[in-house]
What does this fold into?
Amino acid sequence: MHARPRTISALLVALVAAVLVMTGSASAYAAPVSHVGESACQKPAPRNDDTIHIQGCLTDLREKPPKPVPDVRFTVVDDQGKKVGEGTSNASGVFDISLGKSIDVLGNTYTVQLDKGSLPKGAALRNPKQVALKVTPKLSSDVYVTFPIGNATAAGAGKFTQALQLAVGGLVFSLLLAMAALGLSMIFGTTGLTNFAHGELITFGALVAYGVDALPGTITIAGTNVTIAVSIIVAAIASAGFGWLNDRALWRPLRHRGTGLVAMMVVSIGLSIFLRNIFQYLAGASTHQYSQFSSPRPWTLGPILVTPKDVFIVTFSTVVLVLVVIALQRTKLGKATRAVADNTALAAATGINVDRVVSVVWIVGAMLAGLSGVLLGMTQGFDYQLGFKILLLVFAATVLGGLGTAWGAIVGALVIGLFVEVSTLVIPAELKFVGALVVLIVVLLIRPQGLLGKAQRVG
Amino acid sequence: MDWHGILSQSLQQGLGPVAAVYCLAAIGLNIHFGYTGLLNFGQAGFMAIGGYAVSSFVATWGLSFWVGCVVALVATALLALALGVPTLRLRADYLAIVTIAAAEIIRQTIGSVTLLKYFGGQDGLQGFNQSFASLNPFSSSVGIPGVVSWRAYDFWTLLVCWFLVALSCLMTWALMRSPWGRVLKSIREDEDAVRSLGKNVYAYKMQSLVIGGLIGGVAGIMSALQHSAINPSFFATDTTFFAYTVLLVGGAARVLGPVAGTIIFWFLISFLDLFFGAATSGVNPVIPASIMDGNQASLMRFIFMGLALMLLMIFRPQGIFGDRRELALDAR
It folds into this structure.
């Protein structure tokens, strides 16, 4: 078919407009900050002077409702190490340390230190390394700090327990990675496109959910706040639509005019840069969190801690992944998808509507990516680079499992996700992504077709 | 709006040292992608190795700058070999993924706290360019009055950069009209045909990867010298994509493509930046703050750049000066 520049540019404009509309609400509202776990606390009464205080409230999160922890000593030092103030938590767990007049305080950095020896017996900081917090007062209002108290985790325990605890985090991460990787792999399998803009599909999901979440008011069903659940559903639907639009407006016209795969890869890079900056334009550069983003009391499972959120994410993503894989194996459309992936020309010759199949693949693939974005945002918060940052890990997972195979992407993601988290036992956490990327290169060296890929010529 | 100021500053950027650095990076990519068809998405990695080899040699170990330059070139060549061995036998998209991953590995490792004492972490290194700066023959700013003007050090780096660009272009021209260059171009067109003629395709690709990588390494060194500092953010993934855009604007597989590309690209990028900057600043901005504020204005150039890269690849993959027949961009 001949190139139809005008159609393509018209569709491009439509694509831009759609992005603008769908994420439009994201920039308008700021995320409400929640202080879950501090509900037992009574903030000190507001003062009417020009001083800045550092305040906080210590509660033992193992109790329900959280029990205040009294008599814990705090010291505040400035950036030269000079002591500025000290305080002790009172009967309701509250401490309140004055720093002085706001004019002297603003912009300086202070370190709040907790005296570990003054904690009651049996209690420990949830994060044992976090005995000191750095704060930089920027507004002339009091600074509120938190030191979650509960059972000591990771670093206090043995190597094996640490590994188990990290594996829980790794499992959550790898299932989210698997959803993104499955989408990428399906799209690659049917169209041959190495989509560098896949990361933006992930971010898109997170942004739409944030947009819904930030709308004023909450959505309740029978008294339960279900805003976040509604956000997830809306994000999934919007992502599916966005995927369809991607294909319809950009990739299908390009396929029809016979654009080469390398050229399409470069186009996807352009699209990635374009969308990423549009996202930043709309949502700003800061990290966002959902309103129900909280760290509720974790459940103790033997030696490890599991939060209800982890359980929800693991269950939800497993169900989604299993459904997609079953659909690929069993349904007529799934079989058609695999036929197209196997041999497009032959599939077309047997009467399969290739364009329709590819459309469906884009819809499902983008929906998976969007869902993974929302859930990633729920675990760690997100910014406009959420998807871009993990894009290479998604690639690593897909290549590791074998480009274009459905099971491969999932297995690859499990390996990469677990590896990323558990490897922090031996390598510094800042280098955990590096480790995964090294694995990617090593796998290509030994087994280029990936773990589950068919041994075929890939050169 | 100060049109004269905007235009003259844009021109200054289009001819300035940054444009020249990207031109060098794009010349390297031209050898990889334009002539051999290798999809190297990790040019930033080559640049990082080059730049950091020089700067850490001087700033961390206190050795000679010139020894550092030699080591930088050797290190980039080694990187090319290390990347080429596993991937050059594979399909084009594998090379793309591996090179982009390698570039990220290098950037994140260099910027890590673990190696802080050697590479300065996220803050990078400074104060390694005395040997280079001491050769600077200019003592006051240079330029055409009322049109462009550069500070003395900027003009010196600019001169050296463009000299290196000229040298690289000459080398590319000489190489590509040689029998060796013709083999490279035929590899790009049809690898199997070349193989059937008894040529060692793998060796040719490796040589191309090393030569293009070396030019990338030089670009990294010049980037560090031009900023008088170095830090990991210079070598983010987007740096590679900027270089690709420069190459594609001018036209791949043309000796002077990157030169024309970089001047046009940086002129337009600076123009957009300055234009939107001016349009959103002041008490009564041309574009109301509710639509676009200063931060958003600084994003406009990237939005346009992404769009330009897409449209260019779709409608004019040969760039401004390229030859469409020569450039059959396809992997398989």
In short: The longest helix of chain B spans residues 201-227.
